[in-house]
Amino acid sequence: MPKADLSELIKEYNRAGGYTFTHNRTRADDVRFCSWSGQAFDGKKHQKNENEPVFPWDGASDTRVRLADAVCTENSDILTTAFTRGILRASPTEASDASQAESATTLLRYYRDNKLRNELRNEANLLANYGQQYGYGILHVTWQREVTKKIETVSMNDIVQISEIAEQGTGLSELPVLVADPEQEEAAVDVLEANLGIKRRRARKLVKQLRDDGQGELPVDVVTKNCPQIVALKPGDEVFFPPETIDLQSSRYVFRRCWHSEWELRQMESVYGYSSEWVKDVLTANDGSQTSYSDPVSDTFGVSVYTGETDGLYEIVYAYRKEIDEDGVLNVHCTIFNPKVAERAGKEQILDHMAGSYPFVIYRRENVIRKLTDSRGVPDIVHTWQNEIKGQRDMLYDRASLMVFPPLTVPARMGQVYRLQPGSELPEMRPGEVKFLDPPKSNPGEALEVINYIEKQCDEYFGRLNDNTNPVIAQAKMQSMVDNYTTSWSEAFTMMFRLIQEYLGDEELARIAGVEVGLPGSQADIMGAYDFAVKFDVRELDQDYVASKMQAIIGLLPVDTAGTVDRAKLMAIAVSMIDPVLGQSILTDQRGAAQKTFDDVNQDIALMALGNEANYTENDPTATMKLQFMQQIVQNNPKYQEALQGDERFQALLENYGKNLQQSVAQEQNKMIGRTGVQPVGQ
Questions:
Q1: Less packed terminus of the chain by CB within 10 Å, N or C?
Q2: Which of 70-79, 353-362, 403-412, 550-559 has the highest mean pLDDT?
Q3: CA pair distance 450, 107, nearest whole angstrom
Q4: Residue 660: CA atoms inside 13 Å, Cβ hemisphere, count?
Q5: Which residues, at least 6 apart from 533, have a Cβ–Cβ distance to it below 8 Å?
Q6: Helix (H) or strand (E) run with residue 333 in it
């Protein structure tokens, strides 16, 4: 594997996180969170916080108008809801994979809605906020395998067992003899170090313990996490790429930055095989006290901001690049480095499972220009509107202050400085009676009209509903926003499932399937090529619309004589629309529901064969399915066939059971006949 030019990587990394990149992000932060110099907690201007004279007076209004924050938060909430409630489904890219598509869908839904539910919802919310605030955000799709070491006790019997299954003539096959012979201690240490991956000091201690006590302590690897991971990355902080990038997959480099503690670096060395020399260099170069910043970009890129959030942490960069090998195969290389250590990298690896694609997916708030970084965030669009509203609200506040406590006119005195503010004293040249100064003539209604006009303009632009916005246009804008967002997640889920196919073994699948009914139990059940899609109709945010749609579908069920409507799926969708959390708790998957119905019918028939009367039900929605199962069970059981010939009671009980089910079917059909007055010919 060709080694990366570290000096070139560090140069490109610094360029990717240049001033413009960082400045644009900081500006968006300032607008959304209403942050500016000289700001006070009480929302007023104070001369002590400013270098220049404050206007119009010390203590004047300096209100925070959170228009950008309101739009960002509102849109992010909608997008997060679309993610959690959207329909996730796999589409096979080849006809031969159609049969496994349902299993693939079930498995990925399990990860989204159960195993990784909280983690993915948090990342979905972060991605939505990043996209709304900065114009774009990026998802990093990886396989997370966390390993830690624990101490286990091993005995000489364990060592003997290891030697018995080892290939003859190897060091492991001779290990018991080497351990028992004090003269062969170094040879035993060599074998343990080479085959079990433990440090030489620990290996020597283990040999002595085994020889003296018959047992000793051995550090072993324990897998604590083995699952896919999707992380939303903050632009200009956690992820960087060359500023000229148009398509992320065509970028020359993609950099992801993380901040690790010293113990994490030690673990990277001992567990994950990172260079011990590199770890030592990182700790030495940064001296455990590197300059830390609230904005981590500052350390590398030299932007001065206040400190605090990265104290005691070390900057680690994962640099991704594409290279073509001697066979013409496109591979993704990953080089892990620290910007202050240019002599060596921590680790280099080829991501051969990515099929030449970067493990990143970008979400853009808008697609008006091809260049990725030119996608505008909400603060870029609304900051002038926000400033206009702030100006009007400050004026209203200050006007009210003057009305409540206007300035006074008093006799003039030599050398006095005039100050205009509530309660100030303005000297007159001709001494007279002290009186209040008439406040300026103005109409506060004009300011309110300006504020209302700006808010209306903002609502129309972003498709926010109010009394004046066109609901059709607003819905179209909202649906477009949702589709743009879910498209990114569709791509991420497709990438995530490829990792599941690559890394999830049959043992793990079987363990999962044992917990969740209906999940595939082996790799063979999910192998194939699929594209995953997340779909969400924004109209479903309106419960009245959901209710009317479901009512319309349910109204068609009586005429579905061919059984083309999957009622189990219809019920799952209906309950999920009403309450997704409740739906997950009370619904089983379709196969599980059918199996339960089959088991119920099988038990009823078995009891009737013993002479017991079945429990008859009224308006049983599963009657049609039960009738089919009843015929199937009786026909496939020779003992039941024999009993029907000679057991009159069993025959009568079974006949009543069938009539009861047919009555439920007839009642359902009568609902339609009562409305139409006729029964279709042939039914």
A1: C
A2: 70-79
A3: 53
A4: 18
A5: 88, 89, 91, 486, 490
A6: strand 330-337
User: What integer pLDDT is reported at residue 159 of this predicted model?
Assistant: 84
Phi, psi values for residue 157, rounded to 5°: -60, -40
- Sheet of 215-233, strands arranged across: 215-233, 136-155, 360-364
The residue among 461, 496, 254 whose CA lies nearest residue 366 is: 461
Are 397 and 61 in contact by the 8 Å Cβ rule? The answer is yes
Across 101-135, the runs of DSSP E, i.e. the strands, are none
Question: How many residues does the structure list for the chain?
Answer: 683
Sign of CA dihedral 111, 117, 118, 122: positive
- The contacts of residue 616 (CB under 8 Å, 6+ apart) are 656, 657, 660
DSSP string, 124-176: HHHHHHHHHHHSEEEEEEEEEEEEEEEEEEEEHHHHHHHHHHSPTTSTGGGHH
Task: Tell me, rounded to whole angstroms, the distance of Cα 118 from its chain centroid.
Answer: 8
CB 447 within 8 A of CB 392: yes
Which residues, 6+ apart, have CB-to-CB distance to 273 below 8 Å? 347
Alpha carbon of residue 583 to chain centroid = 21
Buried b / exposed e along 601-636 (16+ C-beta atoms within 10 A): beebbeebbeeeebeeeeebebbbbbbebbeebbee
Can you say whether the dihedral through the CA atoms of 294, 295, 299, 302 is positive or negative? negative
Give the Cβ contact number of residue 268 at 10 Å: 21
Under a CB-based contact definition with an 8 Å cutoff, are residues 178 and 187 in contact? yes
CA 256 to chain centre: 17
Whether 343 and 4 have beta carbons less than 8 Å apart is answered as no
What span, in angstroms and rounded, lies between the C-alpha atoms of 91 and 524?
17
Over residues 169-178, the mean pLDDT reads 82
pTM, to two decimals: 0.74
CA angle 576, 580, 585 (to 5 degrees): 100
User: How far does Cα 17 stand from its chain's mean position?
Assistant: 25
Instruction: Please tell me the distance from the alpha carbon of residue 322 to that of residue 297, in angstroms, as a whole number.
Output: 25
3-state secondary structure of 252: coil
Q: What is the pLDDT of residue 151?
A: 85
Please report the beta strands in 7-95, taking only residues with DSSP state E, as ranges in sequence order: 87-92
Q: Are 643 and 599 in contact (CB under 8 A)?
A: no
Q: Which residues make beta-bridge pairs with 659?
A: none
With tokens 């199962």, the residue in question is: 629
Contacts of 644 (CB under 8 A, 6+ apart): 634, 650, 651, 654
- Is the dihedral angle over the CA atoms 554, 555, 558, 563 positive or is it negative? negative
pLDDT band at residue 189 under the 50/70/90 scheme: confident
Q: How far apart are CA 488 and CA 463, in angstroms?
A: 21
